[in-house]
UniProtKB/TrEMBL annotation:
It is found in: Preautophagosomal structure membrane. This is Autophagy-related protein 18a. GO terms for cellular component: phagophore assembly site membrane. Residues 1-18 have a biased composition (Polar residues). The keyword Repeat applies. Residues 1-23, 274-299 are annotated as: Disordered. PANTHER family: WD-REPEAT PROTEIN INTERACTING WITH PHOSPHOINOSIDES WIPI -RELATED.
Length: 299
């Protein structure tokens, strides 16, 4: 599973020496599709870590050069030593492709835009740039623009792409609570009315078959079949409003993790192929609507 999030700048303070230079703040974090490594963007640059064993493999520090910029978005490009990065400051309107080979550690490709880049999604053959009300899809080989999509207001830069097989892209539609699904291999486009409220979070399975969404209310999570837009399962996160921060499918699509500002992570079992889905899309097996695990985070 792959996921990414923008982090509100936590730092670790040196209590023994308060006059020491403070460590950089975290601006962004993203995992690769297998969860075996993750990238961290900071006010000084970016770092790459392996998860098992936990070890830092790459560190690029920009704080000591004339750029003096941080990295607010960093995405690893599957199967390569390349990273798509977006900086802080006055450079928010471009995506840079950073090559980190033994002898070549530099920006080799740049995409320029007229407005601020809200998020980036990448796979070996595509680069996707998300703006406030547009999504641009590029061929990674030559950075040729392949598709331009108009969306509703999208301050969070919500957009997901499949990481295996034919490319599937999901982004906001033009109406409230609407999600647009693009199946590029099938040359088909579909609109799904996911919620009555604005969509706050979305996730796509690695193969692009399943889509999960949550609204700004944060009480329900819905799982859809991207091929036909059917509602497969409705999951109750809780009865109180919450801000859903992240949705993530397991690699085998049997589980869905949901985190929120309530300081918890709910893990749901998905029964999307068990035949327990009603013809109207409703979930007939009530036990599937409740999380099998509820983890409280440290505060």
């Amino acid at each position: 599973m792959a996921s990414s999030s923008t982090v509100a700048g936590p730092t670790i303070r040196n209590t023994r020496n308060p006059d020491a230079t403070p460590p950089p703040s975290i601006l962004h974090l993203s995992f690769n599709h297998e969860g075996r490594s993750f990238a961290v963007g900071t006010t000084d640059g970016f770092m790459i870590f392996n998860t098992d064993p936990f070890v830092q493999t790459i560190r690029q520090d920009f704080s000591k050069n004339d750029q003096g910029v941080g990295i607010r978005i960093v995405q690893m490009i599957l199967g390569t030593s390349k990273f798509a990065v977006v900086t802080t400051g006055l450079r928010r309107q471009k995506i840079m492709i950073w090559h980190d080979y033994d002898l070549v550690r530099q920006v080799t490709e740049v995409l320029y835009f007229r407005s601020e880049v809200k998020s980036v999604r990448v796979r070996p053959d595509r680069v996707v740039a998300v703006m406030m009300q547009k999504v641009f899809v590029y061929d990674h080989k030559n950075l040729q623009l392949l598709h331009e999509i108009e969306t509703g207001p999208n301050p969070k830069g919500l957009c997901e792409i499949s990481l295996s097989g034919g490319m599937v892209l999901v982004c906001l539609g033009s109406e409230k609570g609407e999600v647009r699904v693009e199946h590029y291999g099938l040359s088909s486009s579909k609109l799904i009315k996911a919620h009555d409220s604005d969509v706050a979070c979305a996730a796509l399975s690695n193969d692009g078959r399943l889509l999960a969404t949550a609204s700004t209310k944060g009480t329900l999570v819905r799982v859809f079949d991207t091929s036909d837009g059917r509602l497969l399962q409705e999951l109750r996160r809780g009865s109180e409003r919450a801000e859903v921060h992240s949705l993530s499918f397991s690699s085998d699509t049997e589980w869905l993790a949901v985190s929120s500002n309530k300081g918890t992570v709910h893990v749901f079992s998905l029964k999307t192929s068990s035949g327990s889905i009603g013809t109207d899309g409703s979930q007939e097996a009530e036990q599937n609507n409740s999380p099998l695990s509820r983890l409280s985070s440290f505060k």
